[in-house]
Amino acid sequence: MAIESKYFTMGPMVVSNVGDPTKYISVQSSSLSPNLAMIVGAGSGSLFNKQMYVAGSAPTLSFTSNMIRYVLETLCESGVGTLATGKNLSVWVGMTKYAVARETNGTKIAIGTGSNLACAIPQAITVSNNGMASISVTVIPLGTSSTAPIDITASAALPTGELGSTGVFPGDMQEMWTLGEVKIEDAVVAGVSSVTINFGMNYEVMASGYAWPINAHVLSQTPSISISTTDKSVLMYTGETYGFKAKTANKTVSVTLNSVTSSGERTSTAIVVAVPAGFYTVNDLSLQNGSSGSVQLTVTPLYDNSGGILDLTFPT
Q1: Of 96, 110, 143, 236, which residue is 20 to 30 A from 203 by alpha carbon distance?
Q2: What order of strands is seen across the sheet that includes strand 240-242?
Q3: C-alpha span between 50 and 195 (Å, rounded)
C-alpha cells in the first residue's frame, strides 16, 4: 500500500489572459511572503497577552526566471512597468500525492484576479561566464476595497502539460541567455567572470485604510552594474582618479546576453543593456600568489536627459 506524502513542490507559474494561449513562465524558484501586520495586546493590569489579530497584509511574490526577455517586455514593461488589467499572474504549487509519484492536482495561488492588479518590479539580472542568465522579480499583489489581493484554491487541476509535455513551454517562450561581450567605451573587457545588473527600483505600496495594498508605484530608480574581471585595464577607465575611485561623465558600458539554443549553440541573437553615462568605482582588487588577480568594478548609471537611465535593446 502506497503511503500518502505530505510534501509538496513547485508547480508551474502561468500568466493568464495575456494573448492566447496562456503563457507558462520558466521559473527556477519562487517565494510567497504574506507580510502580516499583527496587533497583540494585554488586558489592563495583566502580565500576559490576551488579544491578538491580523490588522492587515502586504504580500509579495518573489521569483527567479531565465525568461529575461519575456519578463522585461511583458510583465515589467521594459524595466519599470505594471501588470495592466487582464495580465493576471497565477502561481501554482504542485502537490506530491505519493512519495514516488507526482500528482496532477495542486494548490493554486492566484494573484491579480478579476479587477485586481499586480505590480511586477524587476530586481536584478545575474549571469556568469558560460552560465545561464536569470532575472529576479518581485510581484506586489493589489486588492480592491472589497477583495483580497490573493485567492487560494486548495485543490485544483494543474494546467495541461505540467508533467513535461511540449505544451509547457510553447514556441519561443523557452528562453536561455548567457554572458556575451562586456564593453567600456566600445572596447571589450577581457576575462569577465560574472555580471550583476541591479535595477535599483525603489517602490511604495499604499493601503489607504484597507487591510491590504490597493496601489503601488515606483518612486525612483538607482541602478548599478557589478562586473568581476581579471582585466587590469579597467583600473584605467578614469577621468579623475582618487585612490581606487574612478569618476567619469561620459564613459559608456554595455553588457550583452547571447541567446543559447536547446542544443547548446550560442547565437548572435542578443539582449543588450547599455549605460550611456555613469560613475565608476573599483570596489575590490584581489591578488594571490600563483593565481590571476581580479577586479570588482561597479558602474552607477547617471541620467543623461535622454531615454532611460538604462537602455535595453531586445532582438527584433
Answers
A1: 110
A2: 27-33, 60-65, 134-141, 118-128, 192-198, 224-229, 294-301, 278-286, 245-247, 240-242
A3: 52
Q: How many domains does the chain have?
A: 1
- Alpha-carbon distance of 94 to 272, in angstroms, equals 35
Q: Domain for residue 168, yes or no? A: no
Name the residue type at position 1: M
pTM of the model: 0.84
For 311, the grid coordinates are 537602455
What is the distance between the alpha carbons of residues 194 and 183, in angstroms, rounded to a whole number?
13
Cell numbers representing residue 250 in the block = 561620459
- Our measurement of the distance from residue 64's CA atom to the centroid of its chain's CA atoms, rounded to an integer in Å, reads 5
The phi, psi pair for 98, rounded to 5°, reads -130, 165
Amino acid at 255: V
Assign residue 199 a region (left: φ > 0; alpha: ψ between -120 and 50; beta: otherwise). Answer: alpha
Dihedral over Cα of 143, 147, 153, 159: its sign: negative
**Domain contains 229:** yes
Q: What would the grid cell of residue 267 be?
A: 547565437
Query: Can you name the residues that pair with 94 across neighbouring β-strands?
Result: 106
Residue 4 lies in a domain: no
pLDDT of res. 244: 47
Model confidence band, residue 291 (pLDDT cutoffs 50, 70, 90)? confident
Mean of the per-residue pLDDT values of the chain: 77
Burial class for 261, CB neighbours closer than 10 Å (0-12, 13-18, 19+): exposed
* Residue 30 domain-assigned (yes or no): yes
- Residue for grid cell 485543490: 155
Range of the domain at 276: 13-38+52-161+175-313
